[in-house]
Design goal:
Layout lengths: L1 E3 L2 E6 L3 H7 L14 H15 L2 E4 L8 E3 L1 H8 L1
Helix pairs in contact: 2-3
Pfam families: DUF2750
Protein name: DUF2750 domain-containing protein
InterPro entries: DUF2750
């Protein structure tokens, strides 16, 4: 989980290999974890929503990615 002046965020990728590309420098001690889409929808999104954590969807090494709320992703994945 990361932190900015606006609050906490978690980064997610569609594949473990993309996440591994991010695990450098400040994040080199982090290990990508693969979860199923059902786990993400049923477990992670409700907890992230309750904690008001922003989700950075598929960021690349240049910090480009889409910021979404857990509610937005829940609606998109319904």
């Amino acid at each position: 989980m990361g932190e900015t002046d606006e609050g906490n965020f978690v980064m997610v990728w569609p594949d473990e290999a993309f996440a591994a590309q991010w695990a450098t420098e400040d994040w080199e001690e982090c290990d990508p974890v693969s979860i199923t889409l059902d786990e993400f929808k049923d477990i992670w999104l409700p907890k992230l929503m309750a904690a008001k954590v922003t989700i950075a969807v598929f960021p690349n090494i240049e910090d480009e990615g889409k910021l979404s709320t857990a509610q937005e992703l829940t609606d998109l994945l319904a």
